[in-house]
Specification:
- It holds the Pfam family NAD_kinase.
- By secondary structure, this protein is of the alpha+beta class.
- It has six helices and 19 strands.
- It has three domains: 119 residues, Probable inorganic polyphosphate/atp-NAD kinase, domain 1 (Rossmann fold, 3-Layer(aba) Sandwich); 133 residues, Probable inorganic polyphosphate/atp-NAD kinase, domain 2 (Tumour Suppressor Smad4, Sandwich); 39 residues, no CATH class.
- Helix content is 18%, strand content 32%.
- The strands form four sheets. Strands 8-7-18-15-10-11 form a six-stranded antiparallel beta sheet, with no helix packed on it.
- Helix 3 links the parallel strand 3 and strand 4.
- The C terminus is likely disordered.
- The structure holds nicotinamide-adenine-dinucleotide (NAD) and adenosine-5'-triphosphate.
Length: 318
């Protein structure tokens, strides 16, 4: 059997995640697999823990296509960073929550050793999450920037004192126009992030959809929209928009949007892959992460992993 290659992505500025990175590197080696670090991470981490300096580097010693799985030690920001690192390959991401929220993480830090073992031996399921393909066109309809998003494409004003004037379009048909702080075009995964703060709906990960949510729109029609996964949503900055804008994808990849710029968002042909160790109900994740009140609930005590079902069970309607 070929040796498995495990990318380890750790938050480099926290003591606990750096310590966890050393532990995971040692566990991977002890089980006969190859630990790998992104070159920048290796430089940052080995400045703190010298023994990490000899870990093979991604793209130098080991190609991205050779990576079997990425183990992530951090919060959602670190998981989004890991998703970017493995985007050109086929490795799923396994998040160990060492952040504050860790909504995208599969497990909490206390279960790390068992999770690492299962990652090394390949004992996990892979869940596909809808991702967005995002392009920016200039006012001559030329593509000037291309990227992708797991959470959202946020079209935002970039001057505090000026709104942006936008036109929303679906499948090349104009829908409405308004002045706003911005527009969030979110995936089901991102529905619990910026979309959620902006008043958008929480979308279960089993739903394939794209949400379009205005940020402080100065209009009576400012409802969040949800379109199917095969619709193309475009947000245009009007030619006479007083304010200039900026595109931010997952808070990581950005591009300026002058008046006349057009951002086109579609479902990416390439989903993001998340490694799953347990079939868990998305409902439970929402309750746990957002600390929702459920005291007094009198429903059935047996656990039904609804996240993996496509139809609601009969009990759900009781
Ligand atoms: N007002 C807001 O809520 C707001 C504003 C800007 C960006 N964001 C979000 O921050 C994300 C980037 O995350 P970061 O950690 O690098 O930045 P960050 O450190 O500023 O954290 C933003 C918060 O969003 C949470 N988060 C991120 N993805 C999530 C998800 N899918 N579900 C639930 N919560 C999630 C993080 O845990 C964190 O609490 C962006 O993709 C965007 O969704 C939110
Ligand atoms: N090695 C690194 N180099 C540069 N930035 C990093 C590195 N590790 C983490 N970050 C950044 O630090 C920020 C915070 O990280 P992260 O979100 O993982 O932690 P958190 O804020 O504690 O957790 P949560 O997002 O769950 O609240 C993110 O924007 C992340 O991308």
């Amino acid at each position: 059997m070929t040796q498995r290659r495990i990318l380890i992505v750790a938050h480099a500025y926290r003591e606990d995640t750096v310590r966890a990175a050393v532990r995971v590197v040692n566990a991977v080696r002890a089980e006969g697999a190859v630990p790998v670090l992104a070159p920048d991470d290796r430089a940052e981490l080995s400045a703190i823990v010298a023994e990490l300096a000899d870990v093979p580097a991604l793209g130098i010693d080991v190609a991205l296509t050779e990576i079997d799985i990425a183990i992530v030690l951090g919060g959602d920001g670190t998981i989004l960073r890991a998703a970017e690192l493995v985007r050109g390959g086929t490795a799923p991401v396994l998040g160990v929550n060492m952040g504050h929220v860790g909504f995208l993480a599969e497990i909490e830090r206390d279960d790390m050793d068992e999770a690492v073992h299962r990652a090394i031996i390949g004992d996990y399921a892979v869940e596909e999450r809808l991702a967005l393909a995002v392009i920016v066109k200039d006012d001559d309809d030329r593509v000037v920037y291309e990227t992708w998003a797991l959470n959202e494409a946020a079209i935002e004003k970039d001057q505090r004192e000026r709104m942006i004037e936008v036109i929303i379009e679906v499948d090349r048909r104009p829908l409405t126009a308004y002045g706003a702080d911005g527009v969030v075009v979110a995936t089901p995964t991102g529905s619990t992030a910026y979309n959620f703060s902006a008043g958008g709906p929480v979308i279960w990960p089993t739903v394939q959809a794209i949400a379009v949510v205005p940020l402080s729109a100065h209009t009576l029609f400012s409802k969040p929209l949800v379109v199917g996964p095969d619709h193309a949503v475009a947000v245009e900055l009007k030619d006479d928009s007083a304010g200039t804008g900026v595109l931010w994808c997952d808070g990581r990849r950005s591009h300026p949007l002058p008046p006349g710029a057009r951002v086109v968002v579609r479902r990416s042909p390439k989903p993001v892959l998340l490694a799953r160790l347990h079939p868990a109900a998305f409902t439970d994740r929402l309750v746990r992460k957002f600390k929702l009140p459920t005291e007094g609930w009198r429903g059935p005590s047996e656990h039904t992993p609804t996240e993996t079902l496509t139809l609601p069970s009969l009990e759900a309607h009781e």
